[in-house]
Design goal:
heterodimer; A: 7-stranded mixed beta sheet; B: mainly beta; 4-stranded antiparallel beta sheet; 0% helix
Chain lengths: 127, 107
Amino acid sequence: EVQLVQSGAEVKKPGESLKISCKGSGFSFTSSYWIAWVRQMPGKGLEWMGIIYPGDSDTRYSPSFQGQVTISADKSFNTAYLQWSSLKASDTAMYYCARRSGYYYTSGYRWGGLDYWGQGTLVTVSS
Amino acid sequence: DIQMTQSPSSLSASVGDRVTITCRASQGIRDDLDWYQQKPGKAPKRLIYAAVALQSGVPSRFSGSGSGTEFTLTISSLQPEDFASYYCLQHNSFPWTFGQGTKVAIK
């Protein structure tokens, strides 16, 4: 069974650093999957932050998050990470990881969207 | 960047109603679009991938259509468990973008 299990809720102060994790099971990070991160601020919609291909660490960011967070992965632990070096109050949100996979169709194989999601990690930043 | 315009932002409907939600892309994205359902306090769940393909385990009352720039999610007969928020996601090119979401409420 494919699962993505995220680390627990965090309460931090502005200026502190943080690294949250997303551990996959039931599939291998060395296979053809990407792991994405999605933010959801309180009462708001979903925002795509970025994505990493653990096989070669190819990482893409949304311009809105480039330079604000770092996405990484350790394929030997089947785990992806999202980290901040200096948190702000505006980083308070739920953060989801999700797996990107592909699918076969008549002419071959194509990359798709996000098929499995983690349960979310709530990050609260408050002085 | 590709912008996704989703409408309506909210709607009220009754059990048994047919519901349609639309996403419009600012440029052509082939069929690189998924639809997700999110219930309060839960992670999103994929309903439709590749614009028209039903995710395994999802009831057949959900369907997707469209290609290029115009996409539709239809719920043929709304059930009590369908009251939730719905989002489209384009994954044609980075950065990916979600629609703003549609909240489906009980009339």
